[in-house]
């Protein structure tokens, strides 16, 4: 196994950096393939010329974007998940959510239920299975001499939003912004009209003035007096 791969799979990410304990965003979420170590964004400048990977968190587990990891190793057989418009794969094995009963597709290493046609649930499970065959892992590796971080890495906290939250917020944001279309304008116009009506009711606008003769509609709206019971004989 290459040194960088063994170090990355055994690394504990998102621990606070001991050098920048008092700084913000001091979680170690960047891995240097050349130094085989992780560090926080504050320690990034000396590692700029090196090959770097940013590790992210998804449902409390470490993930890496497929676009970045595909430059180093083939990930086509590892089940990926789409979040924040990006595909990610888990680095390490996760505890199974339910016992595998022998029906359907499952990970070849840990037997976690999977979707077709994937064979592994994480990168670690694939590496573990390939190490059992001679030369199997090296056939999957790819040469990569340049792997920079995204330009927005310093501002990216590495936290990914689950799809379920994205789907619920996308409809709200599109309705509030209106998309610049007629539907959004109509919705805003309706809301504005209702707000004006409510203000008029609170301020008393539209009530009968001193010189105004009450009409039949206003007479029907008058508050009735206290009813008087007829005497009993």
Description:
With 233 residues, the protein is α+β, with helices and mostly antiparallel strands. The chain is 27% helix and 12% strand. The strands form three sheets. A four-stranded antiparallel β-sheet has the order 4-5-7-6. Strand 8 (105-106) and strand 9 (113-114) form a beta hairpin. The longest helix has 22 residues, at 182-203. It is elongated and about 110 Å long. Mean pLDDT is 77; it is low at 161-193 and 205-210. Residues 184-193 have a biased composition (Low complexity). Residues 167-233 are annotated as: Disordered. InterPro entries: PLATZ (IPR006734). It comes from Canna indica (Indian-shot).
Relevant terms:
three-stranded antiparallel β-sheet, four-stranded antiparallel β-sheet, 9 strands, elongated, alpha+beta, 233 residues
Strand-helix topology:
Blueprint: H1 3-10, E1 30-32, E2 37-39, E3 52-54, E4 56-58, E5 61-65, H2 66-69, E6 81-83, E7 86-90, E8 105-106, E9 113-114, H3 123-130, H4 163-177, H5 182-203, H6 216-220
Antiparallel strand pairs: 1-2, 1-3, 4-5, 5-7, 6-7, 8-9
Question: Nutshell version of this structure?
Answer:
With 233 residues, the chain is an alpha+beta fold. It contains six helices and nine strands; from the N terminus they run H-E-E-E-E-E-H-E-E-E-E-H-H-H-H.
Largest sheet: 4 strands, antiparallel
Percent in strands: 5-15%
Residue windows where pLDDT falls under 50 for at least 5 positions: 161-193, 205-210
Write down the secondary-structure element order.
Answer: HEEEEEHEEEEHHHH
| C-alpha end-to-end distance | 108 Å
Instruction: Classify the oligomer.
Output: single chain
Number of helices: 6
Protein name: B box-type domain-containing protein
Biased composition (Low complexity): 184-193
Organism: Canna indica (Indian-shot)
InterPro entries: PLATZ
């Amino acid at each position: 196994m290459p040194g960088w791969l063994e170090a990355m799979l055994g690394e504990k990410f998102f621990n606070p950096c001991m050098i920048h304990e008092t700084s913000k965003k001091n979680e170690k979420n960047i891995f240097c393939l050349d130094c085989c170590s992780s560090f926080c964004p504050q320690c990034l400048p000396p590692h700029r010329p090196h090959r770097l990977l940013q590790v992210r968190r998804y449902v409390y587990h470490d993930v890496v974007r497929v676009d970045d990891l595909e430059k180093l190793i083939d990930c086509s057989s590892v089940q990926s998940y789409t979040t924040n418009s990006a595909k990610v794969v888990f680095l390490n094995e996760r505890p199974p959510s339910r016992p595998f009963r022998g029906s359907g597709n499952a990970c070849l290493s840990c037997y976690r239920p999977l979707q077709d046609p994937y064979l592994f649930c994480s990168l670690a499970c694939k590496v573990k299975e390939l190490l059992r065959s001679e030369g199997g892992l090296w056939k999957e590796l790819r040469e990569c001499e340049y792997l920079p971080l995204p330009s927005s890495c310093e501002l990216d906290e590495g936290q990914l939003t689950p799809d379920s939250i994205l789907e619920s917020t996308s409809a709200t944001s599109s309705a509030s912004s209106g998309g610049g279309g007629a539907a959004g304008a109509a919705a805003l116009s309706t809301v504005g009209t209702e707000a004006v009506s409510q203000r008029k009711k609170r301020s008393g606008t539209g009530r009968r003035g001193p010189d105004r003769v009450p009409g039949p509609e206003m007479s029907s709206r008058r508050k009735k007096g206290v009813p008087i019971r007829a005497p009993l004989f």
